[in-house]
Design brief:
Order of helices and strands: HHEHEEEHHEHHEHHHHHEEEEHEHEHH
Structural class: alpha/beta
Helix content: 25-40%
Largest sheet: 10 strands, mixed
Number of helices: 16
Radius of gyration: 25 Å
Strand content: 5-15%
Length: 494
Amino acid sequence: MAGDLPNNSLWGKPTCDVSKNEEILRKHELRKLALIKEPNNASARSQYQAILQKHKSELQACRDRSFPQTQATWVRLYPNDAKAGMLEDVFDKVANRGYNQVFIEAFYDGRVLLPVADNPTPWRSVMEEAVKKGEVAADYDLLQKAIALGKERGIKVYGWAFTMNFGYGYSEIRGKAAALAINGDGENSIAKTNFDRAQVSNGRAFYEDAYEADHLFVDPYSAIARNDLTNLVKALMKRQPDGIVFDYVRYPTTPTGALIDNVKQLWIYGQSSRAALLNRIGDRNVRELMEIYLQNGKITADDIVQTEQKLTTAAQVQPTTIKNLPQTLAIAQNLLWNMATNHAYEGVLSFVNTVTAPLQQNNIPVGTVFFPSGNRAEAGKYDPKMQPWDRFPSFMERHAMTYAICADGKCVADQVAEVVRQSAPETLVCPILAGTWGQSFGGHASYEIQTQAILAKQPKIKCLSHFVFSWMEPESDRLRKAGKATGLENATTR
């Protein structure tokens, strides 16, 4: 999820953190005693609950008067977190650092964070292997427990779901081929995958590091894809999260990320997308030219003449004399390119609106995750992600991945300012910062430096989030991912 982890975990200077090490240690020891060592010890449980409530009240009071009012982080959970006291440890660590919101990965890399016994989706549960090994019950609901633990600590819990990226394993499910995004070469997005397919079959791709070429994207016009993700959203909604954010609300990018200018580079050749494009063209002449354009990646002057003759012959009328063929060709090519790109954009917009409809109807907050450059267009060329975040509905929160790299954080503040500029005043803009506290990492300035730069330029920002929890607590992530965490490990202190 996050690449290499830092070698050192530094506390840094987060806002609204638990300021006394002795309180962190006392809570840590009470958790171990009450939940692991002596689960029947009523006194320990009572004392643990008391310190949780104390820190909850302090966190809320501090965040109400501090910048940012919402400080969030992104968390991946593992089957190991089902062990007694483990998930509580994760949330205690989050609260200790002053976070009052988390984004829990609920659908990612083709797996869902739903119980094996209550999974109405085509994707496998994250817990499937643990259930088969007898490590956890089939009805164990890790996401629901996370939501409950967050509420107990004054931490809002959002689900975090991939959107048009359905995961490699989706390609192995019978009957789903028609749902896949296809480009002008007839390829789906994993045609050039880095995976050894023999090694990642039967859902094992979930355990590999998935890069862009390994992600399987769907055709946003496909009713199959829409229904599958909508059913997943409904299942997540049953757990009553505080909201859900949607990532990969876009098409795949190219290896270089270079702007594209050829229709065959668009992912609109899937059965549903192609049919929708042609069906929305009322003019028979234009529709005929569009078919040629999609097939060849361009049209010629002869195509215009032949199409005119073909249609007028069929209609038994005289063909129109084209006076300036080169100019007509240029206009036609520009028209067809604009129609094709608008169709691609509209697919993304329509898809996210469709799959989030159950949340909208139940007044559950919806957010989108995007790169600020995903909507980039220059001189008729477009970012291959075709991510029209500036056209997402204003009620949708905007979680912009402002990952620019510079030592003073000002480049990040500039990205944030641009997102704010392109957003309605009523839209919540909650930038995502990459890095960690107290040190630079991966070229990113520390969270302290980035936060100061943003505050100086955008003092009205009320929400920031930090990618990612594993970079702040690398040892916790390593052990939990490997299934070796016990909950008895040493506490992380200032």
